[in-house]
From TrEMBL:
Pfam families, sorted: NadA
EC identifiers of the protein: 2.5.1.72
Protein name as annotated: quinolinate synthase
Signal sequence region: none
Pathway involvement of the protein, from the record: Cofactor biosynthesis; NAD(+) biosynthesis; quinolinate from iminoaspartate: step 1/1
Gene Ontology molecular-function annotations: 4 iron, 4 sulfur cluster binding; metal ion binding; quinolinate synthetase A activity
Length: 345
């Protein structure tokens, strides 16, 4: 693979003050949200793909696994998870005794939805003896049927940790699977053909044309969340120039944004990430590779729903204890094998 893989810590922890909130209306709302959170002994976690208002009011902003790990260590008894459902479930798995709330439980994930626990059991039955590796974008029930979870940044290491003669079932992201297969040169890897709907907005010809039209721009590819694993796959195939292409975790992307000398950076990921990049560097122009790369599920979490969630304590995310216990094993194996501080999901 020619492209540079940055390996810095993956998340920005915290929005310790509300200094980022500038409009008086927003400030009033933000103060109300923080007061409600304090009253309810709640901490607000927001994924990078949330709308800017929610990112700015949250106590912590980051990627899903980073937020789950924060969830396990914060002292508050309630966690309001502004992200999609499987992420809130992962927080529950890792901090079972806490109350986890998502402002809208209908915020799902098209990638996680491409495989159910029943389908995975059936697939396993067809390949006895295979080790199941699942991307973290899966439901708790699928994680419970999984041997080892992985993220986009440590998937190669996770698969490499499995003896070469043992077959691997990789699900659900076909692009990440294809990338891992090429990197590990494994011929005993079976890949589930799932994908994220936001992929559709980041295709090869568009990526190539946009990079060619901007010869001085750098390209940041953030393979978080499945939405840009196709771009990661294309970058590692040499579709775009290696010297200008950086595959970055969240933290690596923010570090690179702070130090880049480029006038323009093209960003291949869900557009929510641009808010963080523009905040850390106001002189470089950050443009999405595709403006339509928007996760409709992430955007189901609105400021109004966050307030409603804090006032009413809904929607509570629960995972049956036996499923959580089994799912936790697959997540902990990933953490033991890989380099969880540089995960990109
Ligand atoms: S961007 Fe794609 S993978 Fe991420 S939550 Fe949305 S639908 Fe799921």
């Amino acid at each position: 693979m020619n492209v540079r893989l940055f390996t810095k810590a993956q998340f920005r922890i915290g929005t310790p003050s509300l200094a980022d909130v500038t409009s008086p209306v927003d400030k009033e709302w933000a103060n109300r949200i923080r007061a409600l959170a304090a009253e309810k002994d709640a901490v607000i976690l927001a994924h990078n793909y949330q709308v800017p208002e929610i990112q700015d009011v949250a106590h912590h902003v980051g990627d899903s696994l980073a937020l789950s790990r924060i969830a396990a260590t914060v002292p508050e008894s309630t966690i309001v998870f502004c992200g999609v459902h499987f992420m809130a479930e992962t927080a529950k798995i890792l901090s079972y005794d806490k109350t986890i709330i998502i402002p809208d439980e209908r915020a799902g994930c098209s990638l996680a939805d491409t495989i159910t626990a029943d389908q995975l059991r059936e697939w396993k039955a067809q390949h006895p003896g295979a080790v199941v590796v699942s991307y973290v974008n899966t439901t708790a029930a699928v994680k419970a049927e999984t041997d080892i979870c992985c993220t986009s940044s440590n998937a190669v290491e996770v698969v490499q940790s499995i003896p070469a003669d043992v077959p691997v079932l990789f699900c659900p992201d076909q692009f990440l699977g294809a990338h891992v297969q090429r990197m590990t040169k494994r011929d005993n890897m079976h890949i589930w053909m799932g994908e994220c709907h936001v992929h559709a907005g980041i295709n090869g010809s568009e990526l190539k044309a946009m990079v060619a039209a901007e010869p001085d721009a750098e390209l940041f590819v953030h393979p978080e969340c499945g939405c840009a694993t196709s771009a990661m796959y294309l970058a590692s195939e040499g579709v775009v120039p290696a010297e200008r292409t950086h595959i970055l975790s969240t933290g690596g992307m923010l570090d690179a944004a702070r130090t880049t000398k480029a006038k323009k950076v093209l960003v291949a990921t869900e557009t929510g990430m641009l808010h963080q990049l523009r905040k850390v560097n106001v002189t470089t122009v950050f443009e999405p590779v595709n403006r339509a790369a928007v996760c409709k599920y992430m955007k189901m979490i609105t400021p109004e729903k966050l307030e409603h969630a804090l006032v009413h304590g809904t929607d509570v995310v629960d995972v049956p204890r036996d499923i959580a216990d089994r799912a936790r094993l697959s997540v902990e194996r990933m953490i033991a094998i890989g380099t969880p501080s540089r995960v990109g999901e």
